[in-house]
Amino acid sequence: ITLRNGGEAQGARNVSASVVIPSAWGPDAGASGDVWMAGASEDLLGVGGGSGPLVIHVPGFLNASIGQSNPLASASNVLTVTLSPDCDMRSGSVVSVFGLTGTLSGDTESLNVSVVSAGSFSATAGWVSGNGSLTVTVGSGWIVRGTSYVVSFVLRNGAVNQSSPGVSVRATVPSHLEFDGEGVSAGIAKASGDALGVSGGAAPLLVHVPRFSVRSIVQGNPLASASNLLTVTLSPDCDVAGGSLVTLSG
Fold first, then answer.
1. Of residues 14 and 198, more confidently modeled
2. In this structure, are residues 87 and 47 in contact, taking their beta carbons and an 8 Å threshold?
3. How do residues 168-181 score in pLDDT, each as one tens digit?
């Protein structure tokens, strides 16, 4: 018997069986009473007791977190997602991260991703800038319940200040039959530490436009045709790496 599971979690159902046997000698059939059936109780696809009749588990993640390397405006930024699935997810499963908005990265079907566990995810992902969605596919193997997997990718930050947006994740697990197992979107824990001297700058897609909190200039000689020593004092509001350019104009 092939059925389609419901969309919400539920425990095993109590299932009974009965039989009606027609009689060859009259209109009245023989009938049994309901007999309770023994339900399976083994784990299945990493779900405790998942072999029980009509146990339903909504696929998701025991732990999910995201952080970034660089909060500075217009900069290339490595975002790192760590995921620990709450069930086994076979090859071809799709993990979608939503809410990574405000970037300058254009849409692509082949955004490069770096994975710590070889084969756990494909080396490229789909990226849609409008809703800030990244879609990665489980590679040649399975990802297993309770194991942590790390996926990193590079986006370009937006050009203006912004707070870190809300980010969520959802999983879809293919079936060998008609309908796939569908998860629901759930929030991801966001890093909250500092990065490059920006308070809270490790939060995903928090963007900071670098400025100087102290900026002054004074000269040593106003006389015509004279040599003149100008002294500039600057105090940046973030860490400024070696090789950075500071331009004075006017």
1. 198
2. yes
3. 999 999 988 889 99
Residue 107 clears pLDDT 90, i.e. is over it: yes
The dihedral sign for the CA sequence 8, 9, 14, 17: positive
CA distance 207 to 203: 9
**CA–CA dist 148, 146 (Å, integer):** 7
Higher pLDDT, 49 or 116: 49
Partners of 72 in the beta sheet? 208
Among candidates 146, 150, 140, 88, which has minimal Cα distance to 119? 140
Distances in whole angstroms, Cα of residue 52 to Cα of each of 1, 137, 187, 202: 15, 28, 29, 43
What pTM did the predictor assign? Answer: 0.87
**Contact between 183 and 170 (Cβ < 8 Å):** yes
pLDDT, tens digit, 9 for 90 and up, residues 5-19: 999 999 998 888 888
The strand pair at 61-68 and 189-190 is best described as: parallel
CA dihedral 115, 75, 239, 83 (to 10 degrees): -30
Sequence-distant (≥ 6) Cβ neighbours of residue 223 within 8 angstroms: none
pLDDT for the residue numbered 118: 65
Question: In this structure, how many other beta carbons lie within 10 angstroms of the beta carbon of residue 17?
Answer: 9
Q: 182: which 2 tokens?
A: 């569908």
The angle at the Cα of 217, spanning 215 to 221, to the nearest 5 degrees, equals 175
Instruction: Grade residue 39 by pLDDT with cuts at 50, 70 and 90.
Output: confident
Query: Which pLDDT belongs to residue 119?
Result: 67
Distance of alpha carbon 204 from alpha carbon 183, whole angstroms: 23
